[in-house]
Design goal:
Strand content of chain B: 25-35%
Helix content of chain B: 10-25%
InterPro entries (chain A): CT_C_D (IPR003833), Cyclophilin-like_dom_sf (IPR029000), PxpB (IPR010016)
Pfam family, one (chain A): CT_C_D
Number of strands of chain A: 12
Strand order of the largest sheet of chain A: 5-10-8-9-7-6-11
Radius of gyration of chain A: 20 Å
Strand content of chain A: 25-35%
Oligomer: heterodimer
Largest interface: A-B, 56 and 51 residues
Protein name (chain A): Carboxyltransferase domain-containing protein
Distance between the termini of chain A: 43 Å
Number of domains of chain A: 2
Order of helices and strands of chain A: EEHEEHEHHHEEEEEEHEHH
Order of helices and strands of chain B: EEHEEEEEEEEEEHEEEEEEEHEH
Helix content of chain A: 25-40%
CATH class of the largest domain in chain A: Mainly Beta
Structural class of chain A: alpha+beta
Number of helices of chain B: 4
Keywords (chain A): ATP-binding, Hydrolase, Nucleotide-binding, Transferase
Largest sheet of chain A: 7 strands, mixed, barrel
GO molecular function (chain A): ATP binding; hydrolase activity; transferase activity
Strand order of the largest sheet of chain B: 12-19-16-17-14-13-20
């Protein structure tokens, strides 16, 4: 489908690269958003990449909406011709799956769930065709994920699983949203994973919790001193299952300022990825384990 | 000098004109819901128009001053009192050390703006003093005020004279509010019937109306053009692949209750939006109470820009009158 341009009132231009989610649509929207950033068009105050679209906020006192539209359209061609390669980073996120805190929360809100008799993990494993929760966790943590959007609330990453579409984990959201979700819950809704950056309301299924803060407005967490938000659109995430002891140890390390998330700079090539998804992912994981 | 908070009102927060530049990380603009009223209050006491003041919704706080200063209250009609003596709105008035500022009941509008000469001197967070409570960011310790808080006040730079905003330069919504909307975004998801009824029906502000968004009820349910839902969008016809949300955009989950996102907006999500309230009318929303009858008026981009120019002229006139 052709890229669709539409105005959000007199201060926003909304660009939809595709109405359905795919890595190609994500790549195009991220490249275009980056292109707009580099172009330095005057009067643009915000550039927000999303999953398959992006949004620009501009000051109509400085630039006419039609001029923003014309200049952004001009970037589309260049973005399409550009090599589908991004310089990004891969980060390993430890996850304590089936943890007591999300478990307590999901039991508290059981009447809002599709399947009140089991847990969110039981339900997600069953409807995605996995034999048991262990197999499901193996699949969830077995391939990397793209951070396709950062937002909703401060610093929350939406993540898109880097596997063939037929292998992607999909689950509906809760029937009615919860009024509470533990901070740092690893969740999933539709085809997107997320990490709740702060405690609060939420509708995604809850699978586990990470000991690693990803938003810190006080900027006291050792790796968030330079900036309070950890994730950026385009980051690649690999989940690493951990047990209770490792979780407790990581929490203590974070408190004492000696936790540092394993991060590697990588170059991601969409064409190479699509030629051999499993092989490409194995190489990406190797980079993280190779330290 | 400091201001002691004796009572916090309902929800009183430190606000300025917001923190642009971080919406791509989910951190919203924030800042005064009624930016014009915030600017006016600041200019009245000799502050920069983007200085930090207090925004109080529905119920005023009770504040004690430790030094002589100049104060102005703008926005909603909620009379201010100094040691029980009523003060005029949209007008600077002196407050002496040891005196207490309280407020009468709300008569119209929803939010008052309290500016103090020298402004609220809390630390800058990402370039702004606005409070973003969900992120525990900015303002006074990242949260709404509570009894016992002591707010630091900066050095005053005004002349200290008691000035007033002319009647014709004050702005409050009418009994029936008309909000101008530019259709767009996912407008074409709506059926022809829904495109008609959205603008034809009278809506009312629902009780769920805050700095994040204003919800509306009372109009007919909106129906959608049938389609097979795109991959990743979710099964409800009002779902889309999660995208960014513009400020002022109108989403209608399930087609039932429109929600206009405001200054503390969530930056994105999976509900279709039918269009966006134009920038000239955003301040008005901040002054709407629950149950306010509301009509949505369809406008073109040219009309939106003309309305914006009119608001800019009003602001210029305000600045000129208080120079």
């Amino acid at each position: 489908m052709p890229t669709r341009y539409t105005f959000g009132g007199d201060e926003h231009l909304f660009v939809e690269c595709s109405d359905e989610m795919s890595l190609e649509a994500f790549f195009k929207s991220l490249s275009m958003a980056n292109g707009v950033k580099e172009s330095g068009i005057k009067g643009i105050t915000e550039i927000c990449p999303a999953n398959a679209s992006f949004q620009i906020k501009f000051d109509p006192d400085q630039i006419k909406p039609d001029d923003v539209l014309r200049e952004v359209r001009a970037i589309e061609g260049a973005a399409e011709r550009a090599e589908p390669v991004i310089r990004t980073r891969i980060v390993e996120i430890p996850v304590f799956y089936n943890d007591p805190w999300t478990h307590e929360t999901l039991m508290r809100f059981r009447e809002r769930h599709q399947e009140p008799s089991g847990t969110d993990l039981d339900y997600a494993a069953r409807i995605n065709g996995y034999g048991d929760v262990d197999d499901f966790v193996a699949a969830h943590s077995g391939s990397p994920w793209f951070v396709s959007m950062v937002g909703f609330v401060a610093g929350l990453p939406f993540m898109y699983q880097m596997v063939e579409r037929q292998r992607q984990i999909q689950v509906p959201k809760y029937l009615r949203p919860r009024t509470d979700t533990p901070r740092l819950t690893v969740g999933h809704g539709g085809c997107f994973g997320c990490i709740y950056s702060v405690r609060g309301a939420g509708g995604y299924q809850m699978f586990g919790i990470t000991p690693m803060p990803i938003f810190d407005p006080t900027q006291t967490t050792s790796y968030l001193r330079e900036f309070m938000v950890f994730f950026r659109p385009g980051d690649i995430v690999k989940f690493k299952p951990i047990d209770r002891d490792a979780y407790d140890q990581a929490v203590e390390d974070v408190d004492k300022g000696r936790f540092s998330p394993p991060v590697r700079e990588v170059s991601f090539d969409l064409r190479e990825f699509q030629k051999d998804i499993t092989g490409y992912n194995t190489r990406l994981e190797g980079m993280i384990n190779d330290h | 000098m400091t201001i002691k908070v004796l009572h916090h009102g309902l929800a009183t927060t430190v606000q300025d004109l917001g923190r642009p530049g971080y919406f791509h990380l989910g951190i919203p603009l924030g800042g005064a819901m009624d930016r014009y009223a915030m600017r006016a209050a600041n200019l009245l006491v000799g502050n920069d128009e983007g200085a930090a003041g207090l925004e109080a919704v529905f119920l005023g706080p009770k504040l004690e001053f430790t030094e002589d200063t100049l104060v102005a209250v703008t926005g909603a009609d909620m009379p201010a009192k100094v040691d029980g003596v009523e003060q005029p709105g949209w007008t600077a008035f002196p407050v002496r050390a040891g005196q207490t500022l309280t407020f009468d009941f709300l008569k119209s509008g929803a939010r008052i703006y309290i500016a103090v000469a020298g402004s609220i001197d809390v630390p800058l967070a990402l370039g702004s003093r606005s409070t973003y409570p969900i992120g525990a960011l900015g303002g006074y310790k990242g949260r709404p005020l509570a009894a016992g808080d002591e707010l630091p006040i900066g050095a005053a730079n005004g002349s200290g004279e008691a000035r007033s905003v002319a009647e014709q330069l004050r702005r409050l919504p009418a009994a029936l509010v008309a909000l101008r909307v530019l259709p767009g975004l996912y407008w074409d998801r709506l059926s022809d019937e829904a495109k008609q009824s959205f603008f034809a029906d009278e809506w009312k502000v629902a009780p769920e109306a805050d700095r994040m968004g204003y919800r509306f009820r009372g109009g007919r349910k909106l129906s959608f053009v049938e389609r097979e839902q795109p991959f990743g969008a979710g099964s409800d016809p009002s779902n889309i692949v999660d995208s960014c949300y513009p400020y002022g955009s109108i989403q209608v989950p399930g087609g039932t209750e429109p929600i206009i996102l405001h200054r503390d907006a969530v930056s994105g999500g999976g509900y279709f939006m039918l269009g966006t309230v134009i920038s000239a009318d955003m301040d008005l929303i901040g002054q709407m109470q629950p149950h306010t009858p509301t009509r949505f008026i369809e406008v073109t981009m040219d009309e939106a820009l003309a309305a914006r120019a009119e608001e800019n002229d009003r602001l210029e006139a305000l600045r000129a009158s208080l120079r």
